[in-house]
Amino acid sequence: MTILSAEPFFRHVGFGANGQPRKVPRNGEAYWVARNDYIRDVRDQFVGADVEIVMAVRRQVDYGMSLYQEHVKTSRYSGDFSTFRETFWPRFDYLRQARAWREAFGAFRLLRFEDLVRQKDVLAAFGRAIDANLDDLLPAPFTNAALPPDLVVWKRMMHMAQTSERTLRKQVDTLLSGPLAPLFAALPKRSLYTSFEDMRAFHRQFEDANELLKREFMPPDLQGTPMFSNDLREDYLFGDALHPEFLIHLAAHLSKL
After folding, report:
1. Tens digit of each residue's pLDDT (9 = 90 or more) over 189-242
2. For the chain, first and last CA: distance in Å?
3. Which of 53, 78, 129, 206 could bond to 159 as cystine, CB 3.0-4.6 Å?
4. What is the pTM of this model?
5. Can you tell me whether residue 113 is helix, strand or coil?
């Protein structure tokens, strides 16, 4: 039996005495107590079973942007990107997460997102990586595309209004598929890091832990290179706010209506 979980196994801390999910502690010590309790709870559901945990990780500097965009898109989160990174720090602590799962289950395998997506057939590559035959699975239609960064900022701002989440999502869909769709395609490459230096600092803070992650969990033939590439793009337009380029494009579009 293979259980695939995009995020739930990675983010939960279990249930309280009232049977309701516990709020994720922000304090490091309290978080790991709750997190380890949850992992042991998962293990206890498979007593006597031969279980191997497979964990796929993505370079934190890229995963952070993706996770933030998804969080704003699917919830009413209104914190900026910097606050998000500070609040959701456990999502980026791959080393301790991996160690916790290995301690509870023993058998543990680590995959890199970047190795999978560079393959022509990502689904087949993932199947090979987890020793599962996925040939009978048909590729799913492309859904749940990431929002452009400026639209992420716009939706985040709208979370402070009294508009319902359903209405907001409908408005976002209209913006993406309506007359403004060409506008987003024309926008320069954007990043919600405040600057290149901000992006580089976030990447570098994980270098030591990622090196240990590689030594402990990656195969011998991958030990000669960094766990993740240190190449970072400097040609983005940076800033965690509606960028002037976006507003200029928007004004030009509206002037034609």
Report:
1. 899 999 999 999 999 999 999 999 999 999 999 999 999 999 999 999 999 999
2. 56
3. 78
4. 0.88
5. helix
